[in-house]
Amino acid sequence: MVLSKLTPSHEIIMKAKNFNDSRTAALRESGVSEHAGFPNPATDRSLQNLDINILLIRHSASTYLMRIAGNEWRVLGIFNKDIVIVDRALGARANDLVVWWQGENFVISHQNQVPQETETWGVVSATIHQFREKL
User: CA-to-CA distance for 91 and 8, rounded, in angstroms?
Assistant: First the structure.
């Protein structure tokens, strides 16, 4: 068997291949898939399923899901029938959306808009907006 000497163009192709292999491995470890063209069904088994609990919830013991009624928070990007994920273990920052009590109702606003002597109930960490209702 005769081995030919690698030319610079071969080296570039090999480096690009190694780069893509390491990138693909890093994406798989993070649970993200990269698709270019028609997917190969044989490779789907190596990918992890998307899990909402892992993606959106940090502290499962102190996280609550709340269904929104009404369009009062439309300016915040939260619409009627949306689900907000509220984490009570997170410390609120100035621009975080927080849930707090006002009379007998929960209110959502930015932390810096909560009245001085009012304690926040939890921090909104995510919202889920369904475009099509389940049948």
Answer: 55
What are the phi and psi torsion angles at 46 (to 5°)? -80, -15
**Residue bearing tokens 């940090």:** 58
Structural class in CATH, domain 52-128: mainly beta
Sheet holding 97-102, edge to edge: 63-67, 83-87, 120-128, 97-102, 105-110
Are 97 and 110 in contact, with CB atoms under 8 Å apart?
yes
Residue 101: name the closest of 83, 88, 82, 89 by CA.
88
What are 9-27's pLDDT values in tens digits? 444 444 444 445 666 666 6
- Beta strand 120-128 with 83-87 is antiparallel
Asked whether the CA dihedral 84, 122, 52, 28 is positive or negative, the reply is: positive
Per-residue pLDDT tens over the stretch 86-105: 999 999 998 999 999 998 99
The structural domains of the chain, with segments of one domain joined by +, span 8-46, 52-128
